[in-house]
Amino acid sequence: MGRRVLVTEPVHEDALTLLRAHEFEVIGPAVDRGAVLETADALLVRTRKLTADEVTQFALISKHGVGVDNIPMDAAAAAGVAVMNTPGANAGAVAEQALMLMLALSRNLDGQRAAVPGDPAPQVRGLEGRRLLIIGFGASGKRVAALAKALGMAVTVFSRDLKEARNLGYPVAPDFSRALAHAEIVSLHCPLTPQTANMLDGAALALLPQGALVVNCARGGLIDEAALIAALNSGHLGGAGLDVSQVEPLPLDAPLRAAPRVILTPHAATLSDGAFRRMGMMAAQNILDFFAGKPAESHTLLPKD
Description:
Layout: E1 4-7, H1 13-21, E2 25-27, E3 42-45, H2 52-55, E4 60-63, H3 73-79, E5 82-84, H4 91-106, H5 109-114, E6 131-135, H6 139-150, E7 154-158, H7 163-167, H8 176-182, E8 185-188, H9 202-207, E9 212-216, H10 225-233, E10 237-242, H11 255-258, E11 262-264, H12 273-291, E12 300-302
Parallel strand pairs: 1-2, 1-3, 3-4, 4-5, 6-7, 6-8, 8-9, 9-10, 10-11
Antiparallel strand pairs: 5-12
Helix pairs in contact: 1-12, 4-6
């Protein structure tokens, strides 16, 4: 048997078949989150949070997905551990989830479902003509922008790099505070970093117009949840659609569950059949390419030149 790959969580069976076909020994998947990780040549990880010591046990960490906030990147860099991810593999699925949450909130899906036959149907705002601020313009942010534009929304982009948004013809917002003050709906599509943590805090949420909607299919840590709950309870926000939370899975007694006008989904945006297979296959292919000495540059986060 060849090299060993430790798989921490379930991935598509085709990805495991691909690794085994190239004589990799697959350990797992589904390693208990509290268990000590076995040493292997590579680690294929989804959302399990790794420690600085754990990353040193592998030559390669292959992330099933895009965000690497569960991987201590400084420790990996210091130890000379390579890190690769699967950019674009789940962009369509995440965009679908974000749009679903926007539609459910803006068209008052809960109210429509609860309507009594014969009573007047609840009036809804809808999405057409509304001002959408997309924060982050990676693969999923671009998909959401295109879908929203097709629905007649007025799309503005705030991102670390605004050049691509300009090139695609979208208005850009170089000033974050002014962008929030103009946005009726905010959709988050940026990574969680020390710079973006709690970027939607109490002060930022207060800048949003009365009745604004917040949608997050990126990372829970981008929003100060206590501030979000307060803004919902006060009636300042019209609603929130959240596929992610600061603590996952979200406890049954979490205050967020009791907040008004919130739609919660269980970090499911990436789990469409197609996206789940693409992420698994790309993560597996990253392992094959790395040990063949030809890692894809666009998938390689570490080492950096």
